Amino acid sequence: MKKLLQGCKNLDRKSQREMVNHLSPFLYAVCRRYSDSHEDTKDLLQESLILIFNNIEKCQSDEEAPFKSWCRRIAVNTALSKKRKKHIPTGTMENSKLTEAVHPNIYSRLNVEDILQLLQYLPENQRLAFNLAIVDGYSHREIAELLNVKESSSRTFLTRARQSLQQMIYQQEID
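^ thats the sequence. predicted structure below, dont judge the formating
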């Protein structure tokens, strides 16, 4: 990784191509969680890669894990910036309480694509809070700063996202 990073910092095209091939699957998965379509995901991925290469000198580490974390943060910030430009409405979805408990065997039948598909049905603010907190590990303070909301709103968005997902999963089971 050190050699590859150094090649990218030296603007070596072969190293850059190799880095794109190395990072693309990882960053695609990150961008997919924050976009509505395959086309949007590809656009976010491309914008993220451009920012990564334009700012690669700023990366403090030449180890793979910290570098990938740095790249993930750029991808998430790029996605959030794009969402802000679209002016996200902060409306909420009406919550309905579960009348019965969701059975654990329901979860065993879900795969990543099923979950990603269910996330697309959440209101934007809930989907963003869920991704940032559960998938990317941000704190509510960090989420509040990124989404320009109060910490309590971040907690509310996450709670409502979980409730909505549970309801959708339960609904799939009884249908």
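The first helix runs from residue 2 to 9.
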